[in-house]
Structure formats: C-alpha cells, structure tokens
Amino acid sequence: MFAFLFICSLLVPLSMTLLGKRWSEKPPADIQGLSGYRTAMAKLNQDTWCYAHKIWGRMCFVIGIILIIGTIAFLIYIRNYSNFETLVTYWVFTQIVILALTVIPTEIQLKKVFTKTGQRK
C-alpha cells in the first residue's frame, strides 16, 4: 500500500514540474484548444497566452520540485502512522490547493504587464 500511495501522491507535483517546464518554454499552440493556462486574461491574444504560460510554467516548475522533495520527506516520516492513508489523502488535497493557488500570482503578473484589452502597458 505504501508504494501505491507514494506514487499517487507524486502525481500532482510531477505534473506541475513537467507541464511547468514544457509550457514555460513552449505553450500549447492553440489558444482555443482544451489544454493550457486557460483564463480570460491569458486567452486575449497570442502575447498574453505566451506570457501567462511562461510565468505560470516557471512558478509551477519550482513549486513542483519543492513539492516532490516535501512529499518524499513527508511520506517517509509518516509511513508507520496508523492513519497513513488519511494523512496522504490530506497531503494530496493540499497539493491540489497549491496548484489552484498558482492562478493568483499569474493573474496579478498578467494585469501588471497587460491592459484589459491585452495590450502591453
């Protein structure tokens, strides 16, 4: 059970790291597609799209690395606890919340650099 939960708990940080690295260098080509950092501000034009992915990608790459290290340390520390499964579940939900919160600084940065119509300030 430990190995399964170990792998599952690394899915979010590994996804953050891999997508962050990929999208910071090469964002998805289609703004109207199904993948990518898809907020209204990011989808205004190609410039906002690329900038949002660069900012979000760099941030997720760094946070993903930190979460990978933190997850490994946390799981090794709690592996003998009787409520191990519950603690891992809470940890994964915490990772998801951290991933969702990456939208806030990305949108703040977009609003600093671009106007509401997508023109650079």
Describe the fold and architecture.
The chain is an all-alpha fold and 121 residues long. Helices cover 70% and strands 0% of the residues. It has helices at residues 2-9, 11-25, 46-78, 84-101, 103-113. The longest helix has 33 residues, at 46-78. The model has no long low-confidence stretch (mean pLDDT 94).
Topology:
Elements: H1 2-9, H2 11-25, H3 46-78, H4 84-101, H5 103-113
Helix pairs in contact: 1-4, 2-3, 3-4, 3-5
How would you describe this structure in keywords?
mainly alpha, elongated, 0% strand
Order of helices and strands: HHHHH
Q: What number of domains?
A: 1
Determine the N-to-C terminus distance: 53 Å
What number is the mean pLDDT?
94
Q: Uncertain runs with pLDDT below 50, 5 residues or more?
A: none
Strand content: under 5%
Beta strand count: 0
Tally the helices: what do you get? 5
Instruction: Give the fraction of residues assigned to helices.
Output: over 70%
Mind summarizing the main beta sheet? none
Assign an overall shape: elongated
Offer a concise description of the structure.
It is built from five helices and no strands.
